[in-house]
Amino acid sequence: LKLGCCISIIVVVILKMSSYHGRSDARIYVGNLPPDIRSRDIESCFERFGKVVAVDLKNRKGPPFAFVEFEDARDAEDAVRYKDGYELDGYKLRVEFPRGSGVHPSYNQRNRMLAGRNGCRTNASRHTGFRCYISGLPASGSWQDLKDHMREAGDVCFSDVYKNGNGVVEYMRAEDLEYALANLNESRFRSHEYTVNVNIKDEMQELVYFINKIY
């Protein structure tokens, strides 16, 4: 009986370790933080990219740093891509995948190299202008649901939803926006409660619609 209990405990521990390792690609390192930073401040900084499941802030000895874990690995990639170099209270954040995370170490280097080619560091607050507007969203649809839906066309750097059933999505590249306009209009959007068809317009179409609505 004791042997059976030991085996059960070992199996449970192994399963938990395997589960944690499976989420390692959704975990990022955040360095060069302001000295008075709080866990809630870090969560607020990164929750725009997706659901944050854990923030591990290390601030007892030396300069503070943190590990942030997302529910979805794609959100972690977005956070690294757009928040590395982001200025927070006068401190430029260093955001990357930690060593031994299972993500190839060249990802962090490649991300910085691409940012350098563009003459600036990537920043989530930087708007690209490749924007489209969505209507027909259900009340239960969140900005994260919308982001996941529109990712089919490419890298989404910004998304938001409004109470009137409308939303906005911004892409990193013009070709991603063009694909969304051509292929995701009248597409089936799923939230946790409803499935509906959504309409997608670019900025010019949205402007014409707004003018016609006024006059």
Which whole number gives the mean pLDDT?
76
Q: What does the main sheet amount to?
A: 5 strands, antiparallel
Helix/strand order: HEHEEHEEEHEHEEHEEH
Top-tier CATH class of the largest domain: Alpha Beta
Radius of gyration: 21 Å
CATH topology annotation of the largest domain: Alpha-Beta Plaits
Q: What would CATH call the homologous superfamily of the largest domain? A: RRM (RNA recognition motif) domain
Strand order of the largest sheet: 8-9-7-11-10
Query: How much of the residues is beta strand, in percent?
Result: 25-35%
Shape estimate: elongated
Question: What do these coordinates show?
Answer:
By secondary structure, the chain is an alpha+beta fold. It folds into 2 domains: 19-96, Alpha-Beta Plaits; 131-214, 2-Layer Sandwich (Alpha-Beta Plaits), CATH 3.30.70.330. It contains 7 helices and 11 strands. A hairpin with a 2-residue loop joins strand 4 and strand 5. It starts with a helix and ends with a helix. The model is unreliable at 3-22, 104-108 and 112-125 (pLDDT under 50).
Features:
215 residues; alpha+beta; Alpha-Beta Plaits; 2 domains; five-stranded antiparallel beta sheet; four-stranded antiparallel beta sheet; 7 helices; 38% helix; 25% strand; elongated; disordered N terminus
Strand-helix topology:
Blueprint: H1 2-22, E1 27-31, H2 39-46, E2 52-58, E3 65-70, H3 73-83, E4 87-88, E5 91-92, E6 94-96, H4 106-117, E7 130-135, H5 143-150, E8 156-161, E9 167-171, H6 174-183, E10 187-190, E11 195-202, H7 203-214
Antiparallel strand pairs: 1-3, 1-6, 2-3, 4-5, 7-9, 7-11, 8-9, 10-11
